[in-house]
Amino acid sequence: MSRNALTLVFPAAVVLLVCSLVVLFLTATGLEPGPLLVAEEEPARGCGVVADSATLAWRARVAEAQQRRASLTPADAAAVDAGDALFKSNCAQCHAIDDVVVGPALAGIGQRRPLPWIVKWVQNSSRVVASGDEYGVKLFNQYQKQQMPSFQLSAEQIQQIMKYVEVEAGNRVVLSGAQAVALN
Ligand code: HEC
C-alpha cells in the first residue's frame, strides 16, 4: 500500500475504533436506552460531529425514560414489560396511549376508572354496558356502539397493561397497591 493511501486509511480506522468503543461503553454503562421505553434509534450522526437538535431531543427522551424506569421497583419493571407485550398483541390495533384510534386514548385511564372496573370492562365490555353502567353506556354510545372484543386476560395481566400505559404516558401515578388488593 502506498504511503498516500495509508494516511487516509489509518485515521479512518482509528475513528471507527473510537466510535465502536464509545458505543460499547454506553451500552455497558446502561446509558443506551432499554428496549422498552424508547423505541426509536438515535438519529445517525458521525462520531465527533456536534449534536443537532434531533439528537439532543432524542437524548432528552432517553433521560426521561431512564428516570421513569429507574423509579420503578424491579417487580413493577417486570410488570411493565409484561404489560408492554400484552398491550402490543391485544390492544394496540385499536388503542394508543395519547391518540384516539378505534377506541379512546388510554393515558390517564387509572384516574378515570378504578382498576376493578377496568378488569371487568376488558374481560367483557358488553356485559358492563348491558348492566347499565353509566360510564360504560356513555362511552359505548360515544364510540358509535362499536363493541370492544372480550379478552380472556387475568386481573393481573390487565393490571400489567395498565401499569405499562401509566408509565408510557409519563404518568407518575402508578395504580396503587390498594386497588390491587381490592381485586383479591
Ligand atoms: C377492536 C378494537 C378494540 C380492541 C382490540 C381493544 N379495544 Fe378497548 N375499546 C374499544 C372501543 C371502541 C372502546 C370505546 C367503548 C366502546 O365502544 O365499547 C374501548 C374502550 C376501552 C376502555 C375504556 C377507555 C376509557 O377512556 O374509559 C379501556 C380501559 C379499554 N378499551 C382497554 C382495552 C384493552 C386493555 C385492550 C387490550 C387488552 C383493548 N381495550 C382492546 C376498542 C377496542
Automatic annotation (TrEMBL):
Give the UniProt keywords, A-Z: Heme, Iron, Metal-binding
Query: One GO molecular function term?
Result: heme binding
Q: Which InterPro entries match?
A: Cyt_c-like_dom, Cyt_c-like_dom_sf
Cytochrome c domain boundaries: 78-169
TM annotation in the entry: none
Pfam families referenced in this protein's UniProt entry, alphabetically: Cytochrom_C
Q: What is this protein called?
A: Cytochrome c
The record lists the lineage as: Bacteria, Pseudomonadati, Bacteroidota, Cytophagia, Cytophagales
